[in-house]
């Protein structure tokens, strides 16, 4: 069952097969082909009607995060549509705030897995800022969502 949250994004489940296929093509996918594509915990799974966009927010318990990060974690973002990624990110932010309320958002970008010379560029265009490199060399980006 899908619920319309924004003009273009729908809330779906972590078992949505069309989204699973998008997740399977994302570099962060832990187990390609697994029925569930978002790990356990509070989550908001968003997609578009055409199955060309997948955006997953995780809202983990800070006590369970080994990296000390707090807030909403963008665990997967895959855009195979013609829409600008930064516009989709902004829309997904609005959905997260509508669903859970204002909070900090963060994501990790692996510069070895993206083609851009500016990893996370679409997030930066949506107002996110680079924080630091993680121990594994990923770019940590964040934004306060209101």
What does this structure look like?
By secondary structure, the protein is of the alpha+beta class. Helix content is 20%, strand content 31%. The protein contains 3 helices and 8 strands, in the order E-E-H-E-E-E-H-E-H-E-E. The chain has helices at residues 17-24, 85-100, 121-125, and strands at 3-4, 10-12, 42-47, 53-59, 72-79, 103-109, 129-133, 139-145. A hairpin with a 5-residue loop joins strand 3 and strand 4. The protein is globular and about 35 Å long. The chain starts with a strand and ends with a strand.
Specify the number of helices.
Answer: 3
Query: How would a textbook summarize the main sheet?
Result: 8 strands, mixed
Which class of secondary structure composition applies to the elements?
alpha+beta
Helix content: 10-25%
Instruction: Report the uncertain regions.
Output: none
In short:
The protein has 146 residues and is of the alpha+beta class.
Helix and strand topology:
Blueprint: E1 3-4, E2 10-12, H1 17-24, E3 42-47, E4 53-59, E5 72-79, H2 85-100, E6 103-109, H3 121-125, E7 129-133, E8 139-145
Parallel strand pairs: 5-6
Antiparallel strand pairs: 1-2, 2-3, 3-4, 4-5, 6-8, 7-8
Essential attributes:
146 residues; alpha+beta; eight-stranded mixed β-sheet; 8 strands; 31% strand
């Amino acid at each position: 069952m899908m619920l319309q949250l924004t003009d273009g994004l729908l809330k779906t489940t972590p078992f949505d097969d069309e989204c699973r296929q998008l997740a399977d093509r994302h570099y962060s996918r832990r187990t390609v082909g697994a029925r569930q594509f978002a790990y356990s915990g509070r989550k908001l799974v968003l997609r578009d009607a055409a199955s060309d966009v997948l955006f997953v927010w995780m809202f983990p318990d800070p006590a369970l995060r080994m990296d000390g990060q707090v807030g909403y974690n963008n665990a997967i973002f895959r855009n195979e549509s013609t829409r600008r990624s930064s516009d989709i990110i902004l829309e997904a932010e609005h959905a997260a705030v509508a669903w859970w309320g204002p909070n900090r958002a963060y994501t990790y970008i692996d510069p070895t897995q993206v083609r851009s010379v500016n990893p996370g560029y679409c997030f930066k265009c949506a107002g996110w800022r680079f924080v630091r490199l993680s121990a594994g060399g990923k770019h940590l980006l964040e934004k306060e969502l209101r």
